[in-house]
Design goal:
Keywords: Lyase, Metal-binding, Zinc. By secondary structure, the chain is mainly β. About 5% of the residues lie in helices and about 35% in strands. The chain has a single domain, classed as Metal Binding Protein, Guanine Nucleotide Exchange Factor, Chain A. The strands form two sheets. Strands 7-8-9-10-5-4-11-12 form an eight-stranded mixed beta sheet. A four-stranded antiparallel beta sheet has the order 1-2-3-6, with no helix packed on it. Strand 1 and strand 2 form a beta hairpin. The protein binds zinc ion (2 copies). One zinc ion binds next to loops.
Length: about 170
């Protein structure tokens, strides 16, 4: 449930860590077990964009029906802990652009923290669901666009108030 006032952080217990924070234009994203935590910017230029993706890879890699992402300039990301606890899996076989997508997961709990494209150097695709301040899911990180809407599962209507695209945007 979203708090109606989004001016204060709303950090419910989710996963094992309880030390996430949201202050000014910096906030944390933490994996499910708490081993990996990073700090990212909630404003431009560090925060580049926000989007939903319904492509088939995103179904499989999130074990869900779509991915909700935000793109951050790497220079603005600071790891609080656990960078060494990330493991990587990369492939290019199913990527429409032929780019290699490298996915970084927490070795302990498997949370997908980061996705990097060879065609988009210097940027990281982080996951809205890993952000500790749930108000940011509704505000600064609300998806701007939704891509591969043409691949969306029939029973899901898509993001409300989110610009729709049948195919790829990024
Ligand atoms: Zn973890
Ligand atoms: Zn996708």
């Amino acid at each position: 449930m979203a708090a109606q006032s989004n001016s204060k952080p709303y950090i419910p217990l989710s996963g094992s860590a309880s030390d996430g924070y949201s202050e000014g234009d910096r906030a944390t994203a933490t994996c499910f077990c708490g081993a990996v935590q990073l700090e990212f910017p909630t404003t431009k230029p560090g925060l580049v964009d926000t989007f939903i993706c319904n492509c088939f890879d995103c179904r499989k890699i999130t074990a869900s029906m779509f991915a909700s992402n935000f793109i951050v300039d790497d220079e603005y990301i600071k790891y609080i802990r656990g960078k060494e606890n990330l493991t990587e899996f990369a492939q290019a076989k199913t990527i429409a652009s032929n780019n290699t997508m490298t996915n970084q997961f927490c070795k302990t709990c498997g949370t997908l923290m980061n996705r990097v494209s060879s065609g988009y150097p210097g940027k990281s695709i982080l996951r809205i669901g890993t952000v500790d301040d749930f108000n940011l899911h509704e505000t600064a990180l609300k998806p701007r666009v939704e891509q591969y809407a043409g691949n969306r599962v029939e029973w899901f209507a898509g993001g409300r108030g989110v610009e729709q695209h049948e195919g790829p945007v990024f």
